[in-house]
Amino acid sequence: MPNRLPTDTPDTEACFRQLRRNNACRSNKEFVLAGHTFAEIYAMAQGLRELFSAPACREEVICLAAENKAIIAAAVLSSLYGGPTLLLPFAFSGRALAEMQEATGFTSAVADRPRDFPAGTRVICPEPRPVRQIHKLPAIDPDAELLKLFTGGSTGAPRSWSKTANNLFSEAFYLAQKYQITSKDLIVATVSPYHIYGLLFSVIIPLISSAAVLPETPSFPGEIAAAVINNSATILASVPVHYRVLRDRQTSAGSLRLAFSSAGMLPRADNEEFYRQNNVPLIEVYGSTETGGIAVRVRARSEEAFSPFATVAWQTHHENLYVRSAYIAPDAHRDKQGFFATNDRIATGPNNTFFLKGRTDAVTKVGGKRVNLEEVCDKIKAQQGVDDCLVVTMADPGGRQSIIAGLIVGATIDLKELKKKLMEQLEPYARPRLLKKTANLPRTAAGKYDLTVIKRLLAS
After folding, report:
1. Residue-wise pLDDT tens digits, 366-405
2. pTM of the predicted model, to two decimals?
3. Burial class of residue 302 (count of CB atoms within 10 Å of its CB; 0-12, 13-18, 19+)
4. What are the structural domains of the chain?
């Protein structure tokens, strides 16, 4: 079992020293562009902390259901400096909030607008307050639970992951140092702060680096391009589905210096087209909610393999990737050496790199035979007229075994002809028994495939 140890470790104390230096009681710099300053963020955080220090709140967890990034940042800071744990929901619907309350028992929430909270919930709506002398900030416990991220996941079943102060802020500190993110930068993030990737780039990295962030979270191609160009943004943090819709569109007028993609694999063609249009290399970040960031690659520099962060140790066993770092959620199961199984298959590359080969759960059995769904998907994508597709397994309505099904995007594709070609290229047990066309593949707000909706479409 090859073991690649990190060449560096997070300097937790340096991370929080940096945060203290950025204490906004001495800064009128904008945190949110044309919105709240860092000073106002810290003043709001102090107000929340004073409120949460009441005896009735000390042991409570607080549901955070605001879209205003200034309020999100203030709530995170209040938790960082001794306030209660925050709950970040996967959706703001009444049903989602009710599920969260059933799972956690929260009775208080921080919001910036009316929400369909369960009856009896005490709702706190922070308002900007005069910036006065900020009291001396208490010491930070890096291992204290800062928040819980409730993810809808690709199946729609909510799952929570705890994150400590050290998990989030040490990763932000590492990224800010690695990519020299400073107070001169303006970040446009197209993914919600309620996704770990959006939270890092919309809130945590700005708090560490004093960079400013755009108040909106644009998602349509015209909105994204306008947000970058009109505000002379220097950093774009987006997801593969948004880079797909940005194809054939110039996104920067020259100000952009960094572009990140995460929350799924980015197709090569979309990567190359973004670089051709903007002359900005795309940095693909590989990681997850439970692991934090793991590795990056930049295809514009001819990198096909992923290079792990200097702070991440990794090893492989039977092609499965295991990682160890300070970013892994404390409630994630690890082995005796502290390694977490990622459920991703890899092949080792040169110079401490690896190639991603797909999910371990993408290998399934059909009729007693092992089938790699991602390889079947690749065969379909290679056919002329197919723009995109997703291959899944589904219960056979007429039997006990699973069947392979594919949802295809492509206006000109003939499904009968496609089935004939797949008969020539795939073994009988690996051929999809069900193929359907669709205008697009449904995705969640974080840009991941929404398997609940996809399987519903296939079964309809």
Report:
1. 766 777 787 788 888 888 888 888 888 877 665 556 778 8
2. 0.81
3. exposed
4. 3-285 (3.40.50.12780), 367-459 (3.30.300.30)
